[in-house]
Amino acid sequence: MNNFGVIEIASTKTTNAPGWAYVPDRQHHHLPAPPSTTNRKRARAAAGGAPLSLADANARQEAKARREIEILDRDNARDVQIAIPPKPGGGGGGGGGISRTGGKKYTPNVRKILQSQKTFANHLDDYVALLSQQEANPATNNNNNNNNNGGGGGSSTPANANVETTGTRKSAAQRQASASAAVAASSKKPAAAKQEAEDVEMLDVPDTSSSQERQPPRSAILTPHPLPPTCPGDDDPLLASRLPAFPSDDELRALLAAPPLSYLEARGTWPPDTGGDGQQYPTRAFCVVCGYWGRVRCMKCGTRVCALECLETHQEECVTRYGL
Amino acid sequence: MAPARKSKVHRPPPPSRTLVLDNGAYTIKAGFVTDDGIADDSPRLIPNCIARDRDNRTYVASEIAQCTDFSEAVSRRPVEKGFIVNWEAQKEIWEREFFDDGAPQRCDAAETRLLLAEPPNALPILQANCDQMIFEEFGFASYCRRPAASLSASTHAAELVLLIDSGYSHTTITPVFQGKPIHPAVRRLDVGGKVLTNYLTRLLSLRHYDMRNETHIVNEMKEAACYVSLDFRGDLERTWKGTRGERRESYLSGGGIAKDYVLPDFHTRSRGIVRDYDPAQASRAKRLAVGEASEDVLTLRNERFTIPELLFNPSDIGMRQPGLPQLIMQSLQCLPHGLWPGLLANILVVGGNSLFDGFIQRLEEEVRKLVPDDCTVRVTQPSNPIINTWLGGANLAKDARLQSLAVTKFEYEEHGSAWLARKFASDVGS
């Protein structure tokens, strides 16, 4: 019953291979105490209780929390397969199937998309794999790029200055610098345009900058607003309000031209620089029974409860659930 | 990709109608705009799912209105995390709603332009799938895919808008400048209506009845009874029963927070009812034998406000993400300070979750605490936050600009889907 000292660590990866896969062992196993000692503490230490560091415990807790969140993210409580019902008026069955009853045929792309049973998690894994593959061998990027179906695999070579026009993806590290680098990129525009010119089909990038520069030079992008009428107290330093200077046109253009983040990068995360566990304030703990503040822990499993009454309720379950 | 045929030079005339589609994970918002600028006043809301009830009857999309018994209903949703993933189901729903004979909003795709709203940070492969399906399967005459945030922000008069879209799958923060999203500052919180409903289901199943298979009922309960607390600690204190043996006064009287929710039985009541907590009734119900009780009543106490609280403190369920106010700050950190006053004064909240009572006030309060106190913080909400993105889309559809943004089927066949992806990406950015 012991799982050979393998401790599950937190990972975000999900695998869906047709044959077999490594999956984390999600069952709680209790290691049998070796009979060589009668000392309780030594027995526990020998059984592998003590060698687990705090970090291991955290990893397990984290994995548990992640599982619970995954459960919260499901559409239905149990797994259900709902087949597409046949059309009411359409002649006979097969209305929702892959094979079409009418005369028109599916194009290969459409057939592939319809038959795909991939979930969002699968697509996300594919995307991450694609990115890591590109980082591993950037040389093959450019030939990939042309026939890539979704424009998904982008070139991430830094020499390519037209990233913002092609909307391709860059690696996370490069993207951090992109906001500032894009300022430089706007000055490199002629170079980018030259590259575009070689590709005849690139009709899609309208040169918006030229039309904007025809407007008055103060700010080409902002809508001009008339100044508010002057009032007698305008010069009074006590009434003056200070605003940070609005960014220049170049800065604005660079911001707007910056490519979109990838799905994973846009996810909000705890800032790494603040103290403690990466979060500004300690997380709040609640009573698992009634939802009030979790002020005491169950001594057996460490679950938080609010007070004695809820602790008793919890312990009834705690005993039966873990067989302690 | 079709082979280039030089002989066929004449192109079909541009379509005269635009189908504006906000294909949400929970509901589709759909309506037509003609080129004369005549739009439907409001879109039709179509549930975006295929549902099956207890008797194994299946309902597709708007057929759900015929369903009378939602107990143990299960559903299949083609949209995951805001993106159309399962096209098999989505195609069926679209066909039944738009293309079949007798469809409620029937149109001929070959004579219609499609304006589709999409959430930010889509995976490229899903975008490509979407483009291919729209042209190769449905055959729309012309098509334009726009970020939902920029459509929604266009209903707001300001030049700079900080758009918060809190929907079924997630909550996104997008700063929008002149109708264009500022991509490096887009942030996402993975808490949406679905997580809230499931969390309420979990709490109720632990504390009252087993509601795990009653997603529909719990969702109605959430919409009817939950609110965002402006004083979380105080409210929590008022709903606590007290230590062992103690029953606090505020607990017994309900403290102004406890509500009774009468569950639907689908014979006499098809929807639940929220009632003020009635202590007398609670004790009477205890005395009555089980058979005599004519209605199932759930008393909601701190469930009413701890659920929407997840939007502000996702760490309450162990989610390692900052709350909405902190996430707004993270988004602003990516931008020059000069943009802050404009964005903070024009925070626009759309999406179904913003309908919780107190959401706007709480958000405004918390953001105000975090930003420099010179900045005016103003959080606004459109009159109907659910359809706001669609209204923005309808505005764009009336505009002649859409002509240049959209791609015709001819262009798609000529240039292919990679070109299309680049065009939409550059139109949004530039």
TrEMBL record, chain A:
Residues 89-100 have a biased composition (Gly residues). Keywords: Metal-binding, Zinc, Zinc-finger. Residues 81-104, 137-233 are annotated as: Disordered. GO terms for cellular component: nucleus. Transmembrane segments: none annotated. It comes from the Eukaryota. This is HIT-type domain-containing protein. It comes from Xylaria flabelliformis.
From TrEMBL, chain B:
One of its GO terms (biological process) is chromatin organization. It is found in: Cytoplasm; Nucleus. Keywords: Activator, Chromatin regulator, Cytoplasm, Nucleus, Transcription, Transcription regulation. Signal peptide: none annotated. It comes from the Eukaryota. The keyword Cytoplasm applies. GO terms for cellular component: cytoplasm; nucleus. InterPro entries: Actin (IPR004000), ATPase_NBD (IPR043129). Belongs to the actin family. ARP6 subfamily. PANTHER family: ACTIN. This is Actin-related protein 6.
